[in-house]
Amino acid sequence: MEKKKPGKRLLQRLLPALTLVWIGFILTRSLQPATESKAESGWVLGLLQQVFPAITDHIVRKLAHVTEFAVLGLLLTGDFLLLGGRALPWPPVCGLLTAVLDELTQRFVPGRSGELRDVLIDGCGVLLGCLAAWAVRRLRGIQKRKKERSR
């Protein structure tokens, strides 16, 4: 039986914990009342408008959804790959379930509403993160095979 490398063991412990922290981050942001959430995205909007003057609050908020869930897709894919599996279809499914929970949570927060459209946007973010993780894994595999052939 092949012995695991110490770095891989650490990653197998750290990555799932980081994934849970990230899911907590997403869900706690959904618990913010609309006024707090709007104020937070307002300062980000101000920064981005210095570079992209035509960008709107709506676009910034939707990009935030995509970004948060793309990171989740990366983390979930990493978790499932570290478990030794191919990772399909579990990372997108888990990410989509998190998106549904995120939107359901918002239905109980003053000034917020859960939107199917946001679940779809979040799902796109998850898929982008998963695709990025799979692409990196594939490229690393190609590089590893080239290195082995050159020996």
Sequence-ordered SSE layout with sheet pairings:
Elements: H1 6-30, H2 34-51, H3 57-82, H4 90-106, H5 116-149
Helix pairs in contact: 1-3, 1-4, 3-4, 3-5, 4-5
Quick summary:
This protein has 151 residues and is mostly helical.
What is the CA–CA distance across the termini?
A: 25 Å
- H and E order: HHHHH
The overall number of domains is: 1
Assign an overall shape.
elongated
Task: State the helicity in percent bands.
Answer: over 70%
Structural category: mainly alpha
Mean pLDDT equals 88
SS element count, helices: 5
- Quaternary structure annotation: single chain
Strand residues, percent: under 5%
- Which stretches of 5+ consecutive residues score pLDDT under 50? none
Number of strands: 0
- What is the C-alpha radius of gyration, as a whole number of Å? 18 Å
Largest sheet: none
Could you please describe the fold and organization of this structure?
This protein has five helices and no strands. The chain is mainly α and 151 residues long. The protein has one domain (8-149).
